Amino acid sequence: MSEIEPDSRLPPKKKGMARLIAATGFSLAGLKAALQHGEAFRLEVVIFCILAPAGLWLGQSRVEQVLLVGSLFIVLLMELINSAVEVTIDRGGSEFHVLAGRAKDIGSAAVFVALVLVVFTWGMLLL
User: Fold this and answer.
1) Domain parsing of the chain, residue ranges
2) Is 3 a catalytic site residue?
3) Tens digits of per-residue pLDDT, 71-106?
4) Catalytic pick among 3, 39, 64, 79
């Protein structure tokens, strides 16, 4: 079996530092898109900006500070993944499909579990 030849119409893949720089650009574009198009992500960023400094101040050790702030980062991560799932499904068409609905619900559940983790972490460390 022969190897599949790369499409000559596509630019060659970047390597090393050029690849890192390109990946950083793609990541920043993703954050910009999430902020522009994701109301939930914007709200969670505002909450993060309020609670992260509070977590650094309230944490009595570096470990507690990492747990308090880290749990907030997990919410942002889950929201980004959920948004990516939703955008991908919405691109497929506007008609309802049970699997598309299930995928969106599971993505939403991931965000919910991350929020429960925040409440649990903050409650255990601060109460």
Assistant:
1) 39-126
2) no
3) 999 999 999 999 999 999 999 888 889 999 999 999
4) 79
